Amino acid sequence: MTPADLLGGAILVALVCYAVFAGADFGGGIWDLLASGRRKREQRALVEHAIGPIWEANHVWLILVIVVLFTGFPTAFAAVSTTLFVPLTLLLIGIVLRGAAFTFRAYSGRDPVQSRWGLVFSGSSVVAPLLLGAIVGAIASGRLRVSADGMPLSPPGAWLGAFPAAVGIFACALFAFLAAVYLTVEAQGELQEDFRRRALLAGVAVFLAAMAAAVVSWREAPLVFAGLTARGWSLPLHLGTAAAGGASFAGLLTRRYRLARLAAAAQAGLIVLGWGASQYPYLVVPDVTISSASAPRQTQVLLLAALGVGALTLLPSLWLLFRVFKGRRPAGPAPG
Amino acid sequence: MTDLAAARWLFGTSLAFHIVFAAVGVAMPLLMVMAEWRWRRTGSAVHLELARRWARGTAILFAVGAVSGTVISFELGLLWPRFMALAGPIIGMPFSLEGFAFFAEAIFLGIYLYGWERVSPRLHLASGALVAASGALSAFFVTLANAWMNHPAGFDPAGGPETVRPLVAMFPPGWSHQVIHVLISCYAATGLAVAGIHAWFLRREPGHPFHRAAFGIALAVGGAAALLQPLSGDLSARQIAVHQPVKLAALEGHFETMRRAPLRIGGWPDAEARVTRWALEIPAGLSLLAFHDPDAEVRGLDAFPRDRWPDPLRVHLAFQVMVGLGSAMAALSLAALLLWWRTRALPIHRLFLGAAVAAGPSGFLALEAGWLVTEWGRQPFAVWGVMRTSEAVTPLAHLSVPFWTFAALYVFLAAMVAVLLWRQILHAPPPGPDGGPP
Ligand code: HDD
Ligand code: HEM
Ligand code: HEM
Predict the structure, then answer these.
(1) What ligand has the least distance to the C-alpha of B133?
(2) Complex ipTM, two decimals?
């Protein structure tokens, strides 16, 4: 384990947290868009209650990924920023519109205005994970080529392809699944049944999208495919993911929602871990590796120390946040 | 528009947009906590109402600050990948620590906004205080990064990666002046802007308890900061005189190296003719201010090769705007202090309220102007003396497309925020029978 490996691991952990926490916030937006039936309003209100106090904190995981990447692996940051200029810019527009619309909706008060902002919020909640998934897919697939200092050799459209698209759809399905499962814990009565049904449907969608992505990866992302199938740890990882997936389904079917929530989070986390592990030691396949992109060792060591100290302040605060809002009595009054 | 120009415009616009929300994010939590504290101490219902309303305003502004800050973090790579490849390992430390400050800010703001009925009074107030502290901390860290760009330290540009010393780079010469100046500016700009808004309402209804409470707190914070600002600015200028003499020369429109250099107020620097026209000149003023010695020699732009000059016209004008507004703000604050001293009451004389309304926008204008001074004054370098902006820019083309897109997005968001805030303020409670909200 070099400092570089540890830092790579830290980035992966931050990505896992981003998927498990912020992923569900995106998923909430997807269910806002897909709200239907007699309890449309209640569904939307629940999503808003659930996300309100925590989305900004969850969002910071992404910032952490970015800063650790550019500090610890500057060439990888340059490579990602230049080759993925277009999807990253679109993602930014999505993130801006989504965050602004969510807040504007909460504070705008009047109905027609609220529903317009609601549409911006939910629309961008679909677009952003699609792009996020596509970005991950492009990084893993080996279609982005860069020079030794991270400058692009492939054309600006190189990120487009079947595998990135498949991963984008998979990310949407996964985030929607996470959100629906989490919301079953926070809802009551019929609303709970609504989200239980949605969670089960989304779970099936996750499975199908995963299969589709795996099939495409065989042709378009050989390294991921090899990583997912042929390495020593790939079997235990698959088994773990499958077990978590099974447990979350079982929890939903038997209405043991807290169990389902835990299992679904574990499943999403393992999926991200699996992606990271499968492309180790590449940061951007195939030209940028952990060692080729590394910052000077002293920077990496200090950065690790900073992350450690930061974690000491972060973890208790996060624990407090989630205990206050996601503990025993999750749903609460609107901000006042 | 060349791609380099588009990249600069895009980045500059994004920062100019973000800084407004960032400054509010630093100072507004303080105001809000002060109001809540007053309520908890005295039971004054107006102060509770005020804390809640300020918290709502903060929530709206914070969300826009968070997303616009995210844009900048990505744009660092999207627009300046070569700069980041060089600077990332050197100044990544403050950025990474800033990440944890963001976490603290977002977490405790969540608790503050949604936790009124859920957490104990003490935890609630403490959360607000933590938001205020971590806001200041994030400004602290990001300004360290900027101080390094102005005065790179902690590595040898000619040497290899093994010369990188992140902890040295984190505190480059002059960091303390810049950090202090930036922090004070956040409180001055936000405090006086909020005071200006409530002064506007007080002019119509001088007795309104809600606006009086708001005006008092905002004026105290903003006024105190505005009084300190010129002092801190003087420290900054003296530190530039030593470490970035070419920037000082541009700032002052000072072309010719000389002893007893005059201080130029106003004026129009002409880089071709190498003179500053139509300025009010105070003999030996610059030597005195920069080195505290009327006979000190101040290097002019002529002491530096032409291709290292920033554009003296822009830099000088922006500097004049900042200093002019800063002096006016300090004068207003001094007047407030004297009025308060004489009457021991909130200064709500009509004339004073009028001046406070007029001064409302000036803090933010000065803030923007000041950043333009720093950023334009560092040109043509992105990292002073080490990397030119033209070497830092991305090799990609068509950058004017994202520029216009984001410019439109920012205009739209700014308009929306203005409408929302306006509604929050307009619906201020009418005075109730006991002076509190009905
Ligand atoms: C409320 C805003 C505000 C006000 C009233 C002032 N400033 Fe300022 N100034 C800033 C807000 C600001 C800033 C936006 O925060 C800057 C930009 C970068 C920085 O470090 O602070 C800045 C930069 C800045 C610099 C350049 C620092 C650098 O490039 O490193 C100097 C020399 C001064 N200021 C001096 C002054 C003086 C002499 C003032 C007298 C009234 C003054 N400022 C008022
Ligand atoms: C001097 C200029 C800057 C100051 C004083 C400043 C300060 C702040 C403050 C106080 C906040 C939180 C408050 C709010 O969201 O309204 C914030 C948010 C943010 N800033 Fe800045 N910032 C500056 C420039 C930058 C730069 C250059 C970057 C890019 C690296 C950046 C990235 C961010 C990000 C990512 C957030 C969002 C954090 C969150 O999600 O809570 N800022 N900034
Ligand atoms: C928030 C207030 C700020 C404003 C309004 C601002 C404005 C600008 C402008 C106008 C430019 C383009 C300069 C030109 O081409 O003439 C620029 C460049 C740049 N700024 Fe800032 N800036 C701010 C703060 C910061 C901070 C805090 C950082 C870093 C931590 C930063 C980093 C950069 C970088 C990397 C460039 C590109 C390289 C260069 O042009 O020198 N800026 N900024």
Answers:
(1) 2
(2) 0.92
